[in-house]
């Protein structure tokens, strides 16, 4: 293993894949945090399963390569056990908006102190191009050859209604903005979710459309919930409309905590509880 | 009377469980061992609930068929249980709503109304009448009531005294000495055992009959700092608990069969990623939703084989609260020692039954500490060691990275799929198994009692163990109970059954799951005694069956 932030594991992402942009953005944010005094050993990355998840092998930091859809609930456990760790969850759109949607919304509801980066390429890459909850309506992979009438989830709208305290949208072709968003998300105390429009070079390369659609809104106030609602409805993950990038919504809220983290628990407290309980039954 | 069985019945929501507990406490205060079986349908209001409380001069963990004293809070109780009464049984009924030619009528409702009590206090009045009938001194009853009923104690005392004075028919039970122990349910024992082994977090989604543990732990959290949480699903429960373990916290989860089904995905993950996790599997009737409030032992094969792929695990099945306390502690400690999942199986009978346990038998475990990685060289989460157990480090580990992985991985935790790595990592994990067997064999994995020289052997597991222990004692035969289900304590079981010419195996399932396991290990089972109606055996039924079959 090299001592840089990239391991020597052989990289198997396709050429031109948006995952590279996300990997390097995370790497740069870690370097920035480190320069500011956050040791990299206090950062933990949890990944789901899918193309995105290989990032757990590629980034040379603490990681857990979890299950499809379960990265967020696994990460919640880490946050509970040790609130001093900085937890990043890299998840895919198929991963977290399908199998893992409940965990995502509940983590937002709870305001668990973690940053979720959704590698939203709107297609299942690793299983060769099936539809995901955010696939464009006209997209037909091998699993959905004809029109079904099903519409896309608007994950940002879902997250807003779940009480998410930090919501942003990034784009893999806008690297500098993406870094700023990840940095802002990690600096936010509470649950931050960044939906990253990622191009999939092999199955759904929407570079051309995105390049035309994306914009950074001027004068958007991220503390204004109603303005955030209007902004996320501009783009419904169908193929039309302008796509706003940047921080959509941000609010301060108490973060999720339960009991006493394990390093501060005293065994003697448990022992005496057991003894007192038994004595109380006499 | 040396022994006494009391049945108290009423409508769901009438507080029959609590009343039964108080009666069990009365018995222990008289120096008896008590056991309570609580029978209730899955309803909050309406429906018939009853508790059978047995007092005995020797330790018991099962109830009897014949009732000595029937306490009928409502007409249904009298109608349904009159036939269970012994010929000389005493019946005490709520004369405000129950009509009966025999027994003593006590106007419970009238008493409670006179004292301006709430309707659940009719139980208190009934308990007052019972105490009087068994010849208890008022002062002794008053101390039990003050202990059990911490709210509105004065009112409860007044109500109990009114009924105590009205009850004239007697069926006296003598005071035989100091209380032999404390009353404990299986769920309480599991909770205490986990805490005494250093549990840091308990995560669960409500599901009968394991819910009592969640409530117990939540109540214990303020004093102990324990992290207790109920998330959105059983899938979240176990993945969250495994996340806690990655960060170094000792976590346990609790559920029943349906929830365990959902957990199997993450059970496999614990297998691959070598995450220590303890799962309490409190069995109830299945398949599917089954009968939520009735008992079964039909998840044994499932617990042993749950999850895909192959990986080492522990499965334990204690039979009574003392064993539940002890093995809950072992389950947590051994999971951490070996970095494998452990499943502690109970069932409705044990989880919600109440037993008298001697406090001296509840010995705290020292908590297991996370092995610290050797300081030299780069840290590898899955380092191949002589015994297959890799050093367990927790972030932050300065100068190192800790990579856990649910996919096939190398020693560093990086995904791999080449054949050489695959087989070497599988071999590394499986190297743990011989040591796991060795460690459990030092913990007395098979409990033998009764007449150890007898060539008739009665095998049981889980909550049937106290029942079979007692039956073996009475019949002069041998009782054998494996507490460790997996890895199966083959040599101990073969040794325990070697001299048997006739072997019976009692279990609460249709197919004889433990019997199949015994036979697979060369232990012949002559007679399988399956039960699958959700109800536990009574000692009398079992002995009658065994006599009939042994002929
Ligand atoms: S399939 Fe798509 S998402 Fe997956 S690695 Fe290739 S380009 Fe990237």
Please describe what this structure looks like.
- The complex is a heterodimer of chains A (282) and B (551).
- With 282 residues, chain A is α/β, with parallel strands linked by helices.
- Helices cover 36% and strands 16% of the residues of chain A.
- Chain A has helices spanning 19-35, 55-58, 71-81, 93-99, 101-110, 155-161, 175-187, 207-213, 225-234, 267-281, and strands at residues 43-47, 62-65, 86-92, 114-120, 166-171, 192-197, 214-215, 243-244, 246-250.
- In chain A, the strands form 2 sheets. In chain A, strands 2-1-3-4-6-5-9 form a 7-stranded mixed β-sheet, sandwiched between helices.
- In chain A, strand 5, helix 7 (175-187) and strand 6 form a beta-alpha-beta unit.
- The longest helix of chain A is centred in the N-terminal third of the chain and has 17 residues, at 19-35.
- Chain A is globular, with a radius of gyration of 20 Å.
- Chain B is built from 19 helices and 21 strands.
- The radius of gyration of chain B is 25 Å and the shape is globular.
- Chain B has helices at residues 16-29, 75-81, 108-114, 122-133, 138-148, 153-166, 186-196, 211-224, 234-246, 257-273, 300-305, 321-338, 348-352, 419-430, 432-441, 464-475, 490-497, 513-520, 539-550; strands at residues 4-11, 33-39, 48-56, 67-72, 85-94, 104-106, 182-185, 201-204, 227-229, 251-255, 277-283, 314-316, 341-347, 354-357, 403-405, 446-450, 456-460, 478-482, 484-486, 502-507, 527-530.
- The model of chain B has no long low-confidence stretch (mean pLDDT 95).
- In chain B, the strands form 3 sheets. In chain B, strands 6-5-4-1-3-2-14-7 form an 8-stranded mixed β-sheet, sandwiched between helices.
- Chain B is α/β, with parallel strands linked by helices and 551 residues long.
- Helix content of chain B is 38%, strand content 20%.
- At the A-B interface, strand 2, helix 3, helix 5 and helix 10 of A face strand 7, helix 7, helix 8, strand 9 and helix 9 of B.
- Strand 2 (62-65) of chain A pairs parallel with strand 15 of chain B, so a sheet runs across the interface.
- The structure holds iron/sulfur cluster.
- Residues 13-14, 17, 19, 51, 121, 125, 200-203 of chain A line the site of iron/sulfur cluster.
């Amino acid at each position: 293993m090299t001592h840089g932030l990239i391991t020597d594991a052989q990289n198997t992402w396709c050429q031109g894949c948006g995952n590279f942009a996300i990997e390097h953005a995370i790497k740069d944010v870690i370097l920035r945090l480190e320069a500011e005094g956050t040791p990299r050993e206090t950062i933990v990355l949890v990944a789901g399963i899918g193309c995105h998840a290989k990032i757990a092998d590629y980034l040379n930091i603490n990681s857990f390569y979890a299950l499809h859809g379960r990265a967020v609930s696994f990460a919640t456990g880490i946050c509970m056990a040790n609130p001093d760790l900085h937890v990043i969850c890299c998840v895919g759109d198929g991963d977290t908006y399908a199998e893992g949607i409940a965990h995502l919304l509940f983590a937002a509801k709870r305001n668990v102190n973690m940053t979720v980066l959704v590698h939203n390429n709107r297609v299942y890459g690793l299983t060769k191009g099936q539809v995901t909850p955010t696939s464009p309506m006209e997209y037909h992979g091998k699993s959905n050859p004809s029109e079904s009438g099903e519409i896309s989830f608007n994950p940002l709208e879902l997250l807003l209604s779940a009480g998410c305290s930090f919501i942003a949208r990034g784009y893999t072709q806008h690297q500098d903005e993406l870094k700023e968003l990840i940095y802002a998300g990690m600096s936010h105390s509470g649950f931050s979710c960044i939906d990253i429009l990622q191009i999939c070079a092999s199955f759904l390369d929407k570079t051309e459309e995105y390049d035309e659609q994306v914009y950074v809104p001027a004068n958007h106030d991220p503390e204004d919930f109603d303005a955030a609602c209007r902004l996320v409805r501009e783009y419904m993950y169908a193929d039309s409309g302008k796509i706003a990038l940047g921080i959509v919504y941000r609010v301060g809220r108490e973060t999720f905590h339960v009991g006493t983290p394990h390093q501060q628990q005293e065994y003697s407290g448990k022992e005496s509880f057991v003894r007192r309980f038994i004595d109380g039954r006499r | 009377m040396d022994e006494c069985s009391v049945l108290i019945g009423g409508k769901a929501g009438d507080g029959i469980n609590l009343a039964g507990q108080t009666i069990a406490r009365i018995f222990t205060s008289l120096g008896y061992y008590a056991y309570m079986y609580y029978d209730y349908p899955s309803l909050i209001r309406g429906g018939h609930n009853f508790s059978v409380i047995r007092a005995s001069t020797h330790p018991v963990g099962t109830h009897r068929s014949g009732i000595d004293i029937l306490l009928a809070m409502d007409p249904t109780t009298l109608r349904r249980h009159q036939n269970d009464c012994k010929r000389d049984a005493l019946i005490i009924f709520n004369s405000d709503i129950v009509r009966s030619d025999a027994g003593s009528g006590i106007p419970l409702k009238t008493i409670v109304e006179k004292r301006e009590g709430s309707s659940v206090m009719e139980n208190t009045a009934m308990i007052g009448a019972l105490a009087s009938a068994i010849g208890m001194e008022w002062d002794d009853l008053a101390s039990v009531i003050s202990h059990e009923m911490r709210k509105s104690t004065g009112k409860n005392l007044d109500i109990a005294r009114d009924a105590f004075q009205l009850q004239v028919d007697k069926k006296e039970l003598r005071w035989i000495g100091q209380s032999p122990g404390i009353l404990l349910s299986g769920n309480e024992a599991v909770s205490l055992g986990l805490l005494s082994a250093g549990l840091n977090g308990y995560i669960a989604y409500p599901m009968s009959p394991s819910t009592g543990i969640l409530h117990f732990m939540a109540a214990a959290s303020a004093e102990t700092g324990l992290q207790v949480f109920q998330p959105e699903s059983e899938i979240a429960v176990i993945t969250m608990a495994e996340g806690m373990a990655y960060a170094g916290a000792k976590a346990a989860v609790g559920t029943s069969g349906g929830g365990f089904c959902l957990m199997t995905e993450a059970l496999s993950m614990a297998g691959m990623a070598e995450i220590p996790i303890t799962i309490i599997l409190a069995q109830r009737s299945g398949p599917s939703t089954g009968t939520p409030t009735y008992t079964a032992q039909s998840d044994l094969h499932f617990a042993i084989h749950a999850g895909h792929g192959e990986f080492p695990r522990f499965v334990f099945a204690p039979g009574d609260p003392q064993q539940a306390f002890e093995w809950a502690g072992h389950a947590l400690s051994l999971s951490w020692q070996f970095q494998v999942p452990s499943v502690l199986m109970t069932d409705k009978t044990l989880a919600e039954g109440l037993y008298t346990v001697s406090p001296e038998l509840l010995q705290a475990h020292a908590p297991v500490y996370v092995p610290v990685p050797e300081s030299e060289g780069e840290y590898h989460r899955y380092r191949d060691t002589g015994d297959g157990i890799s050093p367990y480090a927790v972030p932050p580990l300065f100068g190192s990275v800790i990579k856990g992985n649910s996919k096939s991985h190398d020693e560093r935790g990086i995904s791999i799929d080449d054949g050489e790595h695959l087989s070497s990592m599988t071999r590394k994990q499986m190297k743990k198994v011989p040591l796991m067997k060795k460690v459990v064999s030092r913990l007395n994995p098979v409990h033998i009692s009764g007449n150890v020289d007898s060539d008739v052997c009665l095998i049981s597991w889980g909550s049937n163990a106290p029942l079979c222990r007692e039956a073996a004692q009475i019949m002069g035969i041998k009782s054998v109970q494996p507490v460790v289900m997996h890895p199966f304590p083959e040599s101990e079981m073969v040794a325990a059954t070697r001299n048997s010419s006739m072997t019976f195996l009692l279990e609460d399932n249709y197919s004889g799951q433990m019997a199949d396991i015994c036979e697979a290990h060369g232990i012949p089972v002559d007679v399988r005694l399956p039960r699958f109606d959700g109800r536990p055996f009574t000692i009398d039924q079992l002995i009658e069956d065994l006599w009939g079959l042994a002929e």
